[in-house]
Amino acid sequence: MVKGTRGTGHKGHGGGKSRTNKDHRMDSKLITKHRWDDIVAEQLLPENAEKATAEATELDPDKPGLGQFYCLSCAKYFISARALADHSKTPKHKRRLKMLKTTKPYSHEEARAAAGCGPSDHGYDRREPPARMEI
Fold it and tell me: Which of 16, 22, 35, 71 is deepest in the core (most CB within 10 A)?
């Protein structure tokens, strides 16, 4: 018997949290870590880029670099202008930028249709009763 386990209900060897619990916890954290691609692609459009940059770079003491150094395509804040410039040269940033420019994000209608929530077409309007045919 291992010392210090008496009366605790445990056998005294190893244990701890299972891997599946840890995986689930990490997955739920990663869901909110990155912005969705369709939101980022919308912000990268020329008419929205200035507004998105202005909103993202407001002074905020809780964000790195007081929220002044923001990469729109990666949706990430940096400590300094130099860190942002170094990030812009990395392959990870270039890959992300290329992916956002080449792939077209799904529209809301396409997403609803893929989920099976699109408009159904039964040949007539279900709100009005079908017209009677006279013979």
Answer: 71
